[in-house]
Amino acid sequence: MNPIKIIIAGPRGRMGREAVKLVSNTTHFELVAVVDHKYDSMMLSDLEGFQTIHHVPIYNDIEKCLQTIKADVLIDLTTPEVGMFHARTALHYHVRPVVGTTGFSKEDLAELEEICQKKELGCIIAPNFAIGAVLMMKFSQMAAKYFPDVEIIEMHHDGKLDAPSGTAVKTAEMISESRIKKQQGHPNEKETMNGARGANFDGMHIHSVRLPGLVAHQQVLFGSDGQTLTLRHDSYNRGSFMSGVKVAVETVMKHNHFVYGLENILE
Ligand SMILES: NC(=O)C1=CN([C@@H]2O[C@H](COP(=O)(O)OP(=O)(O)OC[C@H]3O[C@@H](n4cnc5c(N)ncnc54)[C@H](O)[C@@H]3O)[C@@H](O)[C@H]2O)C=CC1
Ligand SMILES: O=C(O)C1=N[C@H](C(=O)O)C[C@H](O)C1
């Protein structure tokens, strides 16, 4: 069987570095190029930390990369604006995107879904690749049927650009599907300081914490008469996301449609 040919966008990032390791160490994957906004025309092995990764050219321009290099899958781990441009461009060149980048809008997701339908191509957008985080989201969705009062607290490292996190948004979306519609807290509550109650998604509140020392953590707190239920997931390193990246790459090759959320492909 031919290996799956993969381009990684954002290889020097916290996630990108782990993804380079994963792809290089997986026998049925082949890293054929990387997309970075620096070091055009150099080889990945020229960069510090990548000396053992041979024959992988660096491109600044994704179009040029996709025109030159034959690839099956693009793994994007960059920033929301760049990630959306990359995913759209990859589909245009018949390359299947696996996107971990968060911060996409509803409109972005709808646009990608439409392109996938037209092109009959697979694309996976996964706000969180960690299996434990996906389970936390699913358990939250189950619990919300019985506990409609819920608040989400997501906690991340202070290098994170988007808030709330993609995971928190996805959790709230999944909860919304199972809980009765509800505006939480006192109907007359007032913030005496802006933002005190966090973001409001469909009546439930999301609080974003950013601190050095953290990686990626989330608590989903449910409250009811005389009891609370807390579901919590912690990622202590970026290795925690890699088994999900691997499954997503393998699965996207078998799909001809758009998928938003790893829970939709886990067996
Ligand atoms: N789905 C998941 O499980 C996870 C998703 N993430 C998301 O992945 C994204 C990346 O996260 P980190 O690696 O922590 O961020 P990071 O800031 O460490 O890495 C982002 C990388 O993108 C690169 N970049 C920026 N513009 C670019 C361009 N035009 N072309 C190519 N590369 C470009 C930067 O040079 C940087 O190396 C974020 O959106 C984050 O929320 C992070 C962890 C897990
Ligand atoms: O930026 C991060 O680090 C993470 N981003 C994703 C998100 O926004 O949910 C996934 C994970 O939480 C780590």
TrEMBL record:
<dbReference type="GO" id="GO:0016726">
    <property type="term" value="F:oxidoreductase activity, acting on CH or CH2 groups, NAD or NADP as acceptor"/>
</dbReference>
<keyword id="KW-0028">Amino-acid biosynthesis</keyword>
<dbReference type="GO" id="GO:0005829">
    <property type="term" value="C:cytosol"/>
</dbReference>
<feature type="binding site">
    <location>
        <position position="38"/>
    </location>
    <ligand>
        <name>NADP(+)</name>
    </ligand>
</feature>
<protein>
    <recommendedName>
        <fullName>4-hydroxy-tetrahydrodipicolinate reductase</fullName>
        <ecNumber>1.17.1.8</ecNumber>
    </recommendedName>
</protein>
<feature type="binding site">
    <location>
        <begin position="126"/>
        <end position="129"/>
    </location>
    <ligand>
        <name>NAD(+)</name>
    </ligand>
</feature>
<keyword id="KW-0220">Diaminopimelate biosynthesis</keyword>
<feature type="binding site">
    <location>
        <position position="157"/>
    </location>
    <ligand>
        <name>(S)-2,3,4,5-tetrahydrodipicolinate</name>
    </ligand>
</feature>
<feature type="active site" description="Proton donor">
    <location>
        <position position="160"/>
    </location>
</feature>
<dbReference type="Pfam" id="PF05173">
    <property type="entry name" value="DapB_C"/>
</dbReference>
<keyword id="KW-0520">NAD</keyword>
<keyword id="KW-0521">NADP</keyword>
<dbReference type="Pfam" id="PF01113">
    <property type="entry name" value="DapB_N"/>
</dbReference>
<dbReference type="GO" id="GO:0009089">
    <property type="term" value="P:lysine biosynthetic process via diaminopimelate"/>
</dbReference>
<dbReference type="InterPro" id="IPR023940">
    <property type="entry name" value="DHDPR_bac"/>
</dbReference>
<dbReference type="GO" id="GO:0019877">
    <property type="term" value="P:diaminopimelate biosynthetic process"/>
</dbReference>
<feature type="active site" description="Proton donor/acceptor">
    <location>
        <position position="156"/>
    </location>
</feature>
<keyword id="KW-0457">Lysine biosynthesis</keyword>
<dbReference type="GO" id="GO:0051287">
    <property type="term" value="F:NAD binding"/>
</dbReference>
<keyword id="KW-0963">Cytoplasm</keyword>
<dbReference type="GO" id="GO:0008839">
    <property type="term" value="F:4-hydroxy-tetrahydrodipicolinate reductase"/>
</dbReference>
<keyword id="KW-0560">Oxidoreductase</keyword>
<dbReference type="InterPro" id="IPR022663">
    <property type="entry name" value="DapB_C"/>
</dbReference>
<feature type="domain" description="Dihydrodipicolinate reductase C-terminal">
    <location>
        <begin position="132"/>
        <end position="266"/>
    </location>
</feature>
<comment type="pathway">
    <text>Amino-acid biosynthesis; L-lysine biosynthesis via DAP pathway; (S)-tetrahydrodipicolinate from L-aspartate: step 4/4.</text>
</comment>
<feature type="binding site">
    <location>
        <begin position="166"/>
        <end position="167"/>
    </location>
    <ligand>
        <name>(S)-2,3,4,5-tetrahydrodipicolinate</name>
    </ligand>
</feature>
<comment type="subunit">
    <text>Homotetramer.</text>
</comment>
<dbReference type="InterPro" id="IPR000846">
    <property type="entry name" value="DapB_N"/>
</dbReference>
<dbReference type="InterPro" id="IPR036291">
    <property type="entry name" value="NAD(P)-bd_dom_sf"/>
</dbReference>
<dbReference type="GO" id="GO:0050661">
    <property type="term" value="F:NADP binding"/>
</dbReference>
<dbReference type="InterPro" id="IPR022664">
    <property type="entry name" value="DapB_N_CS"/>
</dbReference>
<comment type="function">
    <text>Catalyzes the conversion of 4-hydroxy-tetrahydrodipicolinate (HTPA) to tetrahydrodipicolinate.</text>
</comment>
<feature type="binding site">
    <location>
        <begin position="10"/>
        <end position="15"/>
    </location>
    <ligand>
        <name>NAD(+)</name>
    </ligand>
</feature>
<feature type="binding site">
    <location>
        <begin position="100"/>
        <end position="102"/>
    </location>
    <ligand>
        <name>NAD(+)</name>
    </ligand>
</feature>
<comment type="similarity">
    <text>Belongs to the DapB family.</text>
</comment>
<feature type="domain" description="Dihydrodipicolinate reductase N-terminal">
    <location>
        <begin position="4"/>
        <end position="129"/>
    </location>
</feature>
